[in-house]
Each structure stands twice: as structure tokens, then as C-alpha cells.
Amino acid sequence: KMNLVVLVTGANSGIGLALCERLLSQGTRGLQLCLACRNMRRAEAARSVLLTSHPTAQVALLHLDTSSISSVVRAAQEVRLRYDRLDYLYLNAGIMPNPQFDVTAFFKGLFSSKIIPMLATGVGILTQKDGVTSDGLQEVFATNLFGHFLLIRELEPLLCHAGQTSQLIWTSSSNAHRSAFNLEDIQHQRGSQPYSSSKYASDLLSLALNTHYNKQGLYSSVTCPGFVMTSLTYNILPSFPAFVWTLLMPVFWLIRLVTNTFTLTPQNGSEALFWLFKQKPESLDPYAKYHSLTSGLGNNYTQPRKMDIDLETSESLYETLLQLESEVRKKLREQPQEAILQDLNGIDRDYTALH
């Protein structure tokens, strides 16, 4: 009998993989863990790493690209075939486009009072250029927010069960700013901060999901991992040689003595995600973002902080997303059957090559 089913998107590296390791470390009996990833070769490598440490664990793989509508729908169908319930859905997958980097502003910021928010959020030194998916959606919006929203909608039968509670747990960011978000432009087509916009939208959406689903036993929470050195972070300064990061690390360690948001490692950054796994969802604050924090001595803890969100805006976003969902489903139904079959065959070939 399965006791708990946990699905983690973007689980093959960084914070997602660190979370999976921590979940398995607290006991594998009765835990079914599903790694939902875009790149199946990396997913297989991550699974091997986890099974090396936890040989008796039940770790399954799922091909999921949250930037692709058809991929989300197919993945959800596969999940519904495999499981009859879903206890935890970690909405962790995300992208941050390679930004335009202002070198002068960066070095000025290093010697100013703004150094901590600059390094933690990129404010003042970064602007980002977004792409467009094959579905015609803005890439950051589709990957970080809308693909996850559609996944939740598709998995409602597993998430909403009489007599049980399920949790949605989002990986958000301290870079989720109200100023970057516009209800009239939820995909952020006209702005230069798509990542910040998508993360603020996930904060809003979490509140709306609680409004609509709590009575059905489904609860949503938002986390912030802090400033973590992952591939997303390294992509902030793609032209910097590796030795620059090596030189900066002692600076980051010193900063952590005065600010607890510099978690630095994926293990530390996953603290809030793991902490929420052990909480009763009914006791959580839907207006709070749960932050992973690390003290100067290296001790990890979780702290809730009120989000800059309101019920009216969250409801408006939710209604807009429902409308967009209706539109993309209509397009998907009109998609030629041959194209869908080609898609499926391509995924099959990719997966077969792993074995």
C-alpha cells in the first residue's frame, strides 16, 4: 500500500534534487517519489544518484516540460494512470533567461549599501530577454507559472480526495515584485523582468488556489530558497569565468554573517520545501511566503514572511488563467493528430535511448 505519493517538478538538479535527497533521508518506506523533468537523461542520472544513497527507495521518472502544453497534458495523463492519489506536488521547475548584465552597476553596487538586495535579486543590474514557446506563449510565463497551473488542473482528481489533504508547494523567489507584474500583461510581453513577474504571479496564484480548493482538501504554499548557487545563479553572469565565482564565494560567506537569506547551497535552500512536508497544511498562512534561511553559523531554519499580495488581484489572475486555459485546450484539440504522434514518438525515442 502506498502511504505517500510525492511529485517534484524540476527534480534533476539544484534545489529540486536536494529536496528529493532530504525526503528520502527521512525514511523511504511507503514513500513513492516521482521526478518530473524536461531532460530525461539528466533525470535518469539524478535517479541513479538517489538510489545509490537509498537503494530501497521507490523513485519513478516522468517526462514533463512545463513550457509545453501538450507535454503537461500527456504527463498528467501518465500520472493519473500510475497513481490513485497525489499527496504532495512540488512546483519547482523554472527558468531564468540569460540577462543583460550591467557590469558598471555591479561593481558600484559591490561597494554600496545596496549590495545585499543587488546580489539576492539582481535589482539594478539585470534585464532579461524572454522567448516564445511553440504554443505561442511567453517562455518564462509558460515554464514557471502556466504549465504548473495546467498541471494542477489536470491532476485535480488525484489532489482532491474526500477524507485526505494534499499540498501544492511552490518555489518562488525574493525577486517576486509587485512592480514587475501587470494584470493587463500577465505574460510580461511588454516588460524586461519576466522572471520577477512570473514569481509574483505564482504568489498570487497560490492565494487564489487556497480560496478555490481548500474546501476540497487541497492547500497551496509558497517558499523562497534564498540566494543559492545553482545553474540559475551561474547563468546570471554567463560571461564570467569560473574563477570569478571562486573569488566571490568568500564574499558571500561574509555576507551571510549579517543576512540570513544567503543560503548558498541547494541543501540549505531546500529547507522551507522540506519543512512544509512535515506541517499540517490547515495550520499554514496562505498570505505567507516560507523562507529558507541560514544563520552565520550555518544553521538552517524556516520563517514565514507576509507577501505583498491581495485577494482581489489573485482572483483576477486566476480568472485570466482559466480563460487562457480554455483557449490553449481548444488549440490543442485542433492540433493535427500527426503532429501529436510525432511528438510522442520523439519522447519514446529519447526515453528508449536511456536503457
Descriptive notes:
This protein is α/β, with parallel strands linked by helices and 355 residues long. Helix 3 packs parallel to helix 6 and helix 8 packs across helix 13. The longest helix is centred in the last third of the chain and has 24 residues. The strands form 2 sheets. Strands 3-2-1-4-7-8-9-10 form an 8-stranded mixed sheet, sandwiched between helices. The radius of gyration is 20 Å and the shape is globular. The chain has 14 helices and 10 strands. The C terminus is likely disordered. It has a single domain, classed as Rossmann fold. This is 3-keto-steroid reductase/17-beta-hydroxysteroid dehydrogenase 7. One of its GO terms (biological process) is cholesterol biosynthetic process. Pfam families: adh_short (PF00106). One of its GO terms (cellular component) is endoplasmic reticulum membrane.
Would you report the number of β strands? 10
Give the overall form. globular
Percentage of residues in strands: 15-25%
Give the CATH superfamily: NAD(P)-binding Rossmann-like Domain
Number of domains: 1
CATH class: Alpha Beta
The neighbouring-strand order within the major sheet is 3-2-1-4-7-8-9-10
Q: How many whole angstroms does the radius of gyration measure?
A: 20 Å
- Identify low-pLDDT runs: 346-355
Please provide the ordered H/E string of secondary-structure elements. Answer: EHEHEHEEHHEHHEHEHHHHEEHH
CATH fold category name: Rossmann fold
Give the distance, in angstroms, between the N- and C-terminal Cα atoms: 28 Å
Biggest sheet layout: 8 strands, mixed
Q: Could you tell me the mean pLDDT? A: 86
